[in-house]
Amino acid sequence: MCSARLSNKDNPMPNPLPDPTTRVMQLLWPGAFATQAVHAAARLGVADTLADGPRSAEDIANAAGANADFTRRLLRALISLEIFREDDDGRFHNTPLSEALQRGSPARAWAMMLGAPFVWRPWGQLYDAVMTGGCAFDAVFATPFDEYMAAHPEEADAYNTAMDVNASMAAASVVAAYDFSAYETIVDVGGGRGALLAAILNANPKSRGVLFDLPGVVANRDTLRIARFGERCAVEGGDFFVRVPGGDALVLKSIIHALSDAQAAQVLRNCRNALNPKGRLMLIETILDAAGAPNPQKALMDLMMLTLTNGHERTAADFEALLPEAGFELTRVVPTDRGNAVIEAATR
Fold first, then answer.
1. How far is the C-alpha of 26 from the C-alpha of 124, rounded, in Å?
2. Rounded distance, CA 120 to CA 137, Å?
3. Cα distance between the two ends of the chain
4. Is it true that domain 20-107 has CATH number 2.40.50.140?
5. Average pLDDT over the chain, rounded to whole?
6. Which of 93, 152, 257, 312 is labelled catalytic?
7. From edge to edge, which strands make up the β-sheet containing 55-56?
8. Is 190 in contact with 255 (CB distance < 8 Å)?
9. Does residue 345 contact residue 329 with C-beta atoms inside 8 Å?
10. Which fold is adopted by the domain 128-347?
11. Sign of dihedral through CA atoms 310, 315, 317, 320?
12. Distance CA 295, CA 41 (A)
């Protein structure tokens, strides 16, 4: 039997890679401009305004208390990114991408945070931070990140909402990867609104929990994810630089990467003092590749930590060096299917 000969049409050649200049321009455009445009649309609530059907730019602007001409120009820019579409009558419609920006969605939470001044203004000082080795956020706002958030509740809410979304999206993978059933009392240190701890307690009905974060974050128990567990989960407000509640398991998700080595060692020493005998510390963190081509998401998150808090993402070797300074030894690393890992440690 003769084999069929494929034509060029049936087996097209792959498109050639862009030349270096074109590739760099593709990285620069739309870049930060798109982030700000998406942030503006999310903050204006455009996707929610269009939830019941198409509207004119004037209607959308009136609903948001915005300028109609500038609103139209913003929407047309976003159409080029497949966020919203315009019909022949000049009315704007949602698309699947814009629907992801409706209130309560993960994408909207991140759009609200990544486009907020407390993120983009320090990013604008990245060059100066690299030159000086100083924290860009501190230079811009003349105050550390945590103190700024305490004084700016609207921006703190944007940050805490994004962190809650992040924890919610990671919770299932952490629970699937790591068995918490051996621990009677599990403390989520810096646990935000409790999304991760709620998932852990739901999967381990014999365990009790303690949600620990700054007083302003956990002040209203009714708004926390662990509210439904009642007396099975305690809530404590405090500062992990000062003390950490005692428990059989101490869980810190995305905490250490936001700290310098000195700050991380201080928090870990407090954890060492609080951890019950034979207990375990679990750091849920992204682990940087030690060599080879860096992962863009990990590498850019490292730069975000550089600009916001002087923290940084770490390699496995970094964690192996950091933990003994606080009296811990690394026992195992359990990867999750979301690209991060549960780094387990025991007291020395």
1. 19
2. 10
3. 71
4. no
5. 93
6. 257
7. 55-56, 91-93, 85-86
8. yes
9. yes
10. Rossmann fold (3.40.50)
11. positive
12. 29
Known catalytic residue: 312? Answer: no
Q: What is the pLDDT of residues 288-302, one digit of tens each?
A: 987 766 788 899 999
Determine the pLDDT at residue 336: 96
Largest Cα span, the chain = 79
Domains of the chain, residue spans: 20-107, 128-347
pLDDT at 18 over 60: yes
Task: State the pLDDT at residue 27.
Answer: 85
Q: Locate the DSSP E strands across the chain.
A: 55-56, 85-86, 91-93, 185-189, 208-213, 233-237, 247-253, 275-288, 314-315, 328-335, 340-347
Peptide bond into 30 cis (omega under 30): yes
Distance set, CA 79 to CA 37, 97, 316 (Å)? 11, 10, 42
Q: What is the pLDDT of residue 7?
A: 43
Please give the Cα distance from 36 to 28 (Å, whole number): 14
Pick left, alpha or beta for residue 309 (phi over 0 → left; psi -120 to 50 → alpha; otherwise beta).
Answer: alpha
| SS3 assignment, position 187 | strand
Q: Nearest Cα to 75, choosing from 53, 58, 51?
A: 58
Contact 137, 308 (CB under 8 A): yes
Q: Residue 23: what pLDDT?
A: 87
Average pLDDT in the 180-200 region? 98
The partner residues of 186 in beta bridges, in order of sequence, read 209, 249
